[in-house]
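Predict the 3D structure for this chain.
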Amino acid sequence: MKVLGTMLEDGIPPGESSSHFFLEIDGFESNATPDNTSPPVFSKPMDSNIRPCASGNGEDMDSPQSLQDDATEYSPNVDSCCANISQGPEQTSARKKLKKYIFRAVSEGNIEELQRLLAELKERSNACTNMTVPEYLMKKFTSSDTGKTCLMKALLNINQNTNEIVNTLLSFAEENGILERFINAAYTEEAYKGQTALNIAIERRQYEITQSLIEKGADVNAHAQGIFFNPKHKHEGFYFGETALALAACTNQPDIIQLLMDNTRTNITSQDSRGNNILHALVTVAEDFKTQNDFVIRMYDMILLKSKDRNLETTKNKEGLTPLQLAAKTGKLEVILQDVIKFLVVYIVFLLGFGVALAALIETCQDGGECHSKSSLGPVLMDLFKLTLGLGDLEIQQNSKYPVLFLLLLITFVVLTFVLLFNMLIALMGETVEDISKESEHIWKLQIQAEFKIIQELIAKPP
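Done. Predicted structure below.
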């Protein structure tokens, strides 16, 4: 699986990324996606891998101009909206493709073209007779099969004019009374259901745009509940806790976390479909991407200290686990695998190497015609494994072609496995215990600090 780009990067080059949450996995298909759509692609966990637009026309991988959109654009009902406007054949053709041109203009960052198209759209909406102006505008701003808006399209294609494009779209929506519907429009297809422009702006690490969306009334508590964001198996999608705040935390964006937590509308205690809150989500991220656990600890501490809710760390998910209990549950397996797998890999290499060498030294059949069952690799490997456990004997030496060399190899194997490998395992586990002790001390100090903060607030309260 290829997932999002490096999470800890502060700057990402402009360009275009994959579709939707721009988390793409090989073989992941949405029923709503046309057959000619390429599967999403991403490189590293929890951040976008934004690329320059390759097609040259601003089309991203899930083009909003689906077959269903085409049918809508060319339907007689749509044409009847502008029946009162007299136009030539070329103008009529351009009018039918207005949605496509708007999406293309925002993706390419063509501000002048967008302003011209919005003026034309305004004129057409006023002439429309079979639907209200807000309904008509939202119809032209939204992909009918996926629910993606031209605002999302603009955020899909980051360029030097993206900020101005977004502000132009928001101003137009506000002037025409569709701002709330437009800014909070969400994907409707099953895979990415619930994802809004705010989610995309945060994933794109666009602080100014995120701030503008929040100031304009974007729903900061919207849940992205598509199956891609709530996978049954961790390698089938990207789980981040569904909310905008959890997304900012899981992508290491403290400035956006601060922005959201300062907003009175943000529900810090919000729980997703698994019953997880933002701290549970961070623990899950740490489980999946243990090489980047340092930032998870920083985000966890930051949220815990800034939160006014005393029950945030004691909230239980649907499995009945608090964030710390979830960390303990998932951490046990991680510690075991981290140390034991290293030992097992080296041990298997030694076992196979010595097994092949010893099997080659055993005579297959003696002169009398009697053949030995331990002349093949399987029985030799079993005897060596027994020697590792202290249960074997040196009976197989009796059938060797070169007894002295055979015995020397056996002694070398025993010394390497007993003395070196097991001591290596002990050293690895000792190092792990030391690391856990340091982390436990850090958590203990944090808890003491939190307790002192509670006591200070209680003392400062007037009687």
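Residues 238 and 265 are 26 Å apart (CA to CA).
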